[in-house]
Automatic annotation (TrEMBL):
Superkingdom of origin organism: Bacteria
Protein name per UniProt: Acyl-CoA dehydrogenase family protein
Cofactor(s) this protein cannot do without: FAD
Pfam families (alphabetical): Acyl-CoA_dh_1 (PF00441), Acyl-CoA_dh_M (PF02770), Acyl-CoA_dh_N (PF02771)
Keywords: FAD, Flavoprotein, Oxidoreductase, Transit peptide
Gene3D superfamilies listed in its UniProt record: Acyl-CoA dehydrogenase/oxidase, N-terminal domain, Butyryl-CoA Dehydrogenase, subunit A, domain 2, Butyryl-CoA Dehydrogenase, subunit A, domain 3
Family according to the record: Belongs to the acyl-CoA dehydrogenase family.
Positions of the Acyl-CoA dehydrogenase/oxidase C-terminal domain: 246-392
A Gene Ontology BP annotation from the UniProt entry: fatty-acyl-CoA biosynthetic process
């Protein structure tokens, strides 16, 4: 076959159906800016952070805040007020570097800041949101408990009235940013007479509040994870979030954060696919690049197709979110599909790389390990399956 008659590869082999053509120039500019930030601040260090199980969270948050990435999709109070699609593209680029970095930004902006922005008093917003947007204060979100993950309504953390004050007792587990946070949004059962589940804005220097970092993790090692212990944490009456009662509060925050995961996990998948694609073109066995063999091409084709379908789904959900908002089951479809497919892409990419795939010199095994956590947190794959099933049948299968 002559060189002129050979089929040409697309300009971007990771976007052979031209999903990028659906983005505006402004959206592509946002993506490029976040990619440069990650290249400068994260990529030179993240493999070492992961290997050592450490993250300079406070320094990194301050740098990300200076670039407007914290709470970027929120309006006012020092937040950038970007679109949902802009935020999704940012999450994708952040997670292309590491899921732990996207988790830091997601918990800060879509859980802690969103809870205060959506349900807090004006005093809460003015005190905390500008600091958090700038990265001068770090937030965490205390919902999951040692015995209550998928069933947060059964939480044991209690809030009781004592005169004009609230007193919190309980514990929370697997809390991202917990041991470096300046403020925690803690959910507790206040009893039916006070609205059931309530959220509280808790400065972490309040007596009785303790945070203990969780170590020896095999996943999300470039992320701070902690257990929170609340023992007689006394708060003024105005510490409660006035804008919501019941489980609607924490669940709406989780829906907000899950939307970022729909995009973010595709960053890990894209990074892994690109490493595998490039390696397949360079690695020679039996006298030819392994990318010339049919089985390798089948893997690459499957990975590429799933990545592009995931991007199309994420972009559709982002456009809908900006236009009319999203229903929880729509976000569940996004997280269920994109995280499972992203994890499959990372695992398959590892097989293309052979033994090199387990090396920390390449990001693929790190991405795969991280996605094992992403598959579970903010709603396990099983729970999202049941959310979708209920939407299809009208029958709840949770109990």
């Amino acid at each position: 076959m002559s060189s002129s008659s050979r089929p040409r590869r697309p300009a971007d082999p990771l976007d052979i159906v031209d999903v990028d053509s659906l983005l505006t120039d402004e959206e592509r500019a946002v993506r490029a800016t976040v990619r440069r930030v990650c290249d400068d601040l994260v990529e030179p260090h993240v493999a070492q952070w992961y290997e050592q199980g450490e993250l300079p969270a406070r320094e990194l948050a301050a740098q990300l805040g200076r670039h407007g990435l914290l709470g970027m999709h929120l309006e006012g109070y020092g937040c950038a007020g970007m679109s949902s699609v802009d935020y999704g593209l940012a999450c994708l680029e952040l997670e292309a570097s590491d899921s732990g970095i996207r988790s830091l930004v997601s918990v800060q902006g879509s859980l802690a800041m969103y809870a205060i922005h959506a349900f807090g008093s004006e005093a809460h917003k003015e005190e905390w949101l500008p600091q958090m947007a700038a990265g001068e204060a770090i937030g965490c979100f205390g919902l999951t408990e040692p015995d209550h993950g998928s069933d947060p309504a059964s939480m044991r953390t209690r809030a009781r009235r004592d005169g004009a004050d609230w007193v919190l007792e309980g514990s929370k587990l697997w809390i991202t940013n917990g041991s470096v946070a300046d403020v925690a949004v803690v959910w507790a059962d206040a009893g039916e007479e006070h609205g059931g589940i309530r959220g509280f804005v808790v400065p972490t220097d309040t007596p009785g509040f303790e945070a203990h970092e969780i170590t020896h993790k095999m996943s999300l090692r470039a992320s701070v994870t902690a257990e929170l212990a609340l023992s007689g944490v006394r708060l003024p009456g105005e510490a409660v979030l006035p804008g919501v009662t019941g489980m609607r509060g924490p669940l709406s925050c989780l829906t907000e954060a899950r939307y970022g995961i729909v995009w973010g996990c595709l960053g890990a998948a894209r990074s892994s696919l690109e490493v595998a694609r490039r390696y397949s073109c360079e690695r020679v066995q039996f006298g030819r690049p392994i990318g010339a063999f049919q089985l390798t091409q089948a893997k690459l084709a499957r990975m590429s197709t799933e990545l592009q379908l995931g991007r199309l789904l994420a972009l559709h959900l982002g456009r809908r979110k900006d236009a009319v908002g999203l229903r929880p089951e729509q976000v569940s479809v996004g997280k269920y599909n994109n995280v499972t497919k992203a994890l499959e892409i990372c695992r398959t990419a590892r097989t293309v790389l052979g033994a090199s795939g387990i090396s920390g010199e390449l990001p693929v095994m790190r991405h795969a390990n991280n996605l094992e956590s992403v598959l579970t947190y903010e709603g396990t794959v099983e729970m999202h399956t049941l959310v979708i099933g209920q939407a299809l049948t009208g029958e709840p299968a949770f109990r």
